[in-house]
């Protein structure tokens, strides 16, 4: 049993674990931000105190992800789910079509929104076999007049992740990176647009980060309501209306923590070590634990697995819950178990889970 006051072993899929030091900083500053006698929550979004936080968050993300000069970083609300609609609203004109690579439930949702707003097609799919793999790059078939190609870089529910991104040439590449942004280094310049709900690797819920190439932005549909246009956010530094100030402040604290850890390369190395702890147990279990994802498509963020039978799975989930592990039930649409190990989930929590899995297997095999 976890002692009262001790931090939980939090494997939630999102909202997810935050770094302890970021939470402590927020706690220390909660009543009096920077000697102003007010919480950052109580500051005007037009004031210099908040504005500094806002701009630091943007600058830190640019630095940590090595975002090129010709990109804008935007803070939008409505979650990644609104991005499913905003992307086609802005970038799918009549006479063009959008290609979607289907790698899970979130790709399906993104595709469904695009279909409502214009012409969309499936450029490749891993649905057969219930999304255990990522389509090979050569399977992706772009059709004529493709406005953009959309991928989901990490599939939170199924536990698969792209480990190499397609080269789409002239076709703008767009990615939903909600569940693996900032978890590994990659070349942002391959993408026309990246979006991510913050509540896994970037901070709390309430804000969605959009990274967009300026030349691409210029092609966007101008005839949209202000709040649905990326241009509105870009023009006013995401301060057209009141942004989710406290969420953005927490994003800033989380980015500072990433920097303190040694940046994205160091975080990536740790993520590999964390994920290996569990995949090794699964692989050495002689079928006691069965991973959902094919090994080459395995996610470093969400480890999905089942136990040999449902009664045992139920027993495992009940036991880990009693012992202070949180969030290990698989998504309701897939079942089984899922350990989400985002950036801020400590190595020690993953090690504790590995030890528990080994012990449970010994007692129940
Ligand atoms: C990959 C991915 N895309 C989109 C979403 C939906 O995000 P939101 O709840 O911010 O709309 C999620 C949520 O878990 C996700 O994992």
Topology:
Layout: E1 9-10, H1 20-29, H2 48-65, E2 71-76, H3 79-91, E3 97-102, H4 105-117, E4 119-125, E5 146-152, E6 154-155, E7 160-161, E8 173-176, E9 193-197, E10 208-213, H5 214-217, H6 230-235, H7 245-260, H8 263-283, E11 289-291, E12 302-307, H9 310-322, E13 325-326, E14 337-340, H10 347-364
Parallel strand pairs: 1-13, 3-4, 3-5, 5-8, 8-9
Antiparallel strand pairs: 2-10, 6-7, 9-10, 11-12, 12-14
Summarize the structure.
The protein has helices at 20-29, 48-65, 79-91, 105-117, 214-217, 230-235, 245-260, 263-283, 310-322, 347-364; strands spanning 9-10, 71-76, 97-102, 119-125, 146-152, 154-155, 160-161, 173-176, 193-197, 208-213, 289-291, 302-307, 325-326, 337-340. It is an alpha/beta fold. It has 2 domains: 24-260, Aspartate Aminotransferase, domain 2 (3-Layer(aba) Sandwich); 263-364, Alpha-Beta Complex (Aspartate Aminotransferase, domain 1), CATH 3.90.1150.10.
């Amino acid at each position: 049993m976890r002692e009262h006051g001790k931090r939980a072993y939090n494997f939630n899929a999102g909202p997810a674990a935050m770094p302890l030091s970021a939470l402590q900083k927020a706690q220390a500053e909660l009543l009096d931000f920077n000697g102003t006698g007010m919480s950052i929550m109580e500051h005007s979004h037009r004031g210099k105190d908040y504005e500094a936080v806002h701009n630091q968050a943007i600058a830190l993300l640019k630095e940590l992800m090595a975002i090129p000069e010709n990109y804008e970083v935007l803070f939008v609300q409505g979650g990644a789910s609104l991005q499913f609609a905003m992307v086609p609203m802005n970038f799918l004109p009549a006479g063009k079509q959008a290609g979607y690579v289907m790698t899970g439930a979130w790709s399906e949702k993104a595709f469904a929104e695009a279909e409502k707003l214009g012409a969309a097609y499936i450029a490749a799919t891993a649905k057969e076999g219930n999304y255990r793999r990522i389509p090979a790059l050569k399977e992706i078939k772009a059709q004529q007049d493709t406005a953009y190609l959309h991928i989901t870089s990490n599939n939170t529910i199924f536990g698969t992740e792209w480990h190499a991104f397609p080269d789409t040439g002239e076709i703008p590449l767009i990615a939903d990176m909600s569940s693996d942004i900032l978890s590994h280094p990659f070349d942002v310049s391959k993408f026309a647009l990246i979006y991510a709900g913050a509540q896994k690797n970037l901070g709390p819920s309430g804000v969605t980060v959009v990274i967009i190439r300026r030349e691409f932005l210029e092609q966007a549909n101008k005839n949209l309501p202000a709040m649905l246009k990326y241009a509105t956010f870009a023009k006013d530094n995401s301060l057209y209306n009141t942004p989710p100030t406290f969420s953005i402040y927490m994003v800033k604290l989380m980015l500072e923590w990433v920097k303190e850890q040694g940046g994205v390369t160091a975080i990536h190395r740790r993520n590999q070590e964390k994920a290996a702890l569990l995949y090794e147990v699964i692989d050495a279990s002689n079928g006691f634990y069965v991973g959902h994802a094919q090994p080459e498509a395995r996610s470093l963020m969400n480890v999905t697995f089942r136990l040999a039978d449902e009664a045992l799975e139920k027993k495992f989930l009940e036991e880990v819950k009693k012992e202070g592990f949180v969030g290990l039930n698989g998504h309701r649409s897939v079942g089984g178990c899922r350990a989400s190990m985002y950036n801020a989930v400590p190595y020690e929590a993953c090690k504790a889970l590995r030890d528990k899995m080994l012990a449970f297997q010994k007692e129940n095999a």
